[in-house]
Amino acid sequence: MPNIKPFKAILPPQNKAADVVIGLENLTISSAKVIGALNPSSFVHLLVPKIENYYLRGSKQEIAFKKIAENFDDFIQNGTLVRDRTESIYIYAKTYKGKTKTGIWAVSNIEDYLSNNIKRHELTRIEREKGLVEYLQQTGLDANPVLITYAKNDDLDQIIEKEKLKPADLDFFITDEQHQIWKVCDSDIVLEIQSIFAQMPATYIADGHHRAAAACSFGQQRRVLNPKHQGTEEYNYFSSVYISADQLEILPFHRFLKLNHLFDHIEILEFLKANFEIKEIDKRDIIPKKEHLVGFYYQQKAYQVNLNSFLNKNILHDLDVSLLQELILKPLFNVEDPREDEKLYFLGGKIDIELHLQMIDSGKFDLAFFLYPTSVNDLIQIANLGGTMPPKSTWFEPKFLAGLVTHEID
């Protein structure tokens, strides 16, 4: 059912790829400026440009977008980035510690997002969408793909593995991660891949709900403004990486709290002991090994909180993030809206447990709850039901590098 399309990507050449690409996770304005100062080839110059003349006409934001346009032209002219001449579907593989995750990098039609052929499980925030739409409007660069998953498909797996037997068009390392790209431009193979996707009953956004929503908003705006709109223009599509559900890795977001003086610290343990099955454990076992068990770290001691007695066979209710919010964070710490509460901090992905426990011991945080990851099956079921996952339910791997495969929408 999803309508994917090949496109003419913008990529770095082999000899510059490792210098160009940049990870966006944990990238801050200050770190971006440092990277930009040290590396003239970094894609960061198309994200956070260095403004050398603040007396140019226009707002600081307008000047920044103008500088991005200049930097992009320079990158194309000096060969830091190269436009593909042929439309392709791209196979992308990321290998880390001997484990490889492989996906199809293409562009998705915004109609599939609007018609729910690409299903979603998160609410988006208008203010965040607006910033992404403005970047698309001003730069024309769709540089960070939406991660979409689908039920394992043997026919698609066979095509991918056959194409991977060929020499990769890009193959480079960043620290201990290997990144590889294969271009699939043979029309028969492209049509076969498109046909397989067209027969899928649905696909599911794993990561990138705001990027998909922003691309859709931008595309709809462009349709209105283009009197010759045909539906084939690049603004009707957004960059996507499709990865089979059996390869998708979900990690949890853990909850850290910094309490104010109004909280009675003595009552915290009393509340948990009165309402839950709780036992003290070794802090090395703070990360749960099964669902419905929550790790709790407080006053240099580690505990396990058992939530199994509160299950009611409702998939949304029974998510560990839902149970933690409704049974503990809301009644005990007055966390009404996890998105807005200033006491609550989220740390996701692969984290250094010892380091983060030290952050609590040192007083940066007062306590933390550690969760078991939500399953892909739960995500798919909730999306099929039209449900919405609680905030910060999932951290997905792989994450993608900006500047690796860029879709030019304008």
Question: Would you mind describing this structure in some detail?
Answer:
This is DUF1015 domain-containing protein. Pfam families: DUF1015 (PF06245). InterPro entries: UCP033563. By secondary structure, this protein is of the alpha+beta class. It folds into two domains: 4-249 and 398-408, no CATH class; 253-372, Conserved hypothetical protein from pyrococcus furiosus pfu- 392566-001, domain 2, CATH 3.30.1760. The protein is 33% helix and 25% strand. The chain has helices spanning 17-20, 29-38, 60-78, 110-114, 126-139, 154-164, 187-198, 209-225, 265-275, 320-333, 353-361, 376-384; strands spanning 4-5, 10-11, 22-23, 82-83, 89-96, 99-109, 118-119, 141-142, 146-150, 170-174, 177-184, 203-207, 237-244, 249-251, 253-257, 277-281, 293-298, 301-306, 344-348, 367-370, 395-397, 401-402, 407-408. The strands form six sheets. Strands 1, 5, 6, 7, 9, 10, 11, 12 and 13 form a nine-stranded mixed beta sheet that branches. Strands 16-18-17-20-15-19 form a six-stranded antiparallel beta sheet, sandwiched between helices. A two-stranded antiparallel sheet has the order 2-4. Strand 10 (170-174) and strand 11 form a beta hairpin. Helix 5 crosses helix 8 (209-225). The longest helix has 19 residues, at 60-78. The two termini are 26 Å apart. The mean pLDDT is 94.
